[in-house]
Amino acid sequence: MMGLVAAFEPPTTKDFVWGCWGPSLKIGPLSFCMNFINFLVLMGFLLMVLFFYLGLRKPKVVPGKMQSLAEMGIQVVRENIAIPMLGEASDRFLPLLATFFFAIFFWNIFEVVPGINFSSNSRVAFPLVMAMISWVVYNAVGVLKHGFGGYLKHVCFPPGAPWWLYPLLVPIEFFTQIIIRPITLAVRLWANFMAGHFLLAVFFLGTVAMLEGGITAIFAPFSFAIGTALVGFEIFVSGLQAFIFAILTASYIGGAMAEEH
What percent of the chain has pLDDT over 90? Predict the structure, then answer.
């Protein structure tokens, strides 16, 4: 039993911290360098670009496999996210929504790639940057549509509410719609993949520990089976979280453009 305890090293938050590869650039208190996580971000971006380049560089009337996949991906975003949320304005924001969807998906899917098993979205900085881009876009759209004062009124003064409730409703609406939204967008994506990384690590490291623990080896197939099932679940979550981020962004943009709250 002591051997098992010594062999098993549970995952910790140190799994999310990686050192620099080579020299770093320091600007004030900030340090910039290439490390494992930045490498995954770059690789995910390049894979997304390569996917659409190979699919759409020479479009044909009768599409091949890559063109069909690329067109189907755009169609999924357009028909299931952009049009239901934005209606006639869907094509205007389709590039942003498609970029969010596919960038997040390609970054997420590294979670289940053998030898990598890590999503860059497990670090909150990357989801937060995308959430801030979403925040800037839908607030800018709202200000352009209604004017600055009109947009604040649109956001903070729900129509139909009694006037005496506004002292309570205005700060609540401002806080939830202006401040909380980018935080919830980022945390939802980050927390899912941080938790996913821990779950996969626990069950696969547990399998190894059980195999090395004598009698506990009889439980190793169960741990491995659960880990394998979680891999399939993480693939599903990779697409689901990309879809949720994109559709919430589209919903916020649609709400900002709406004539009524």
Answer: 33
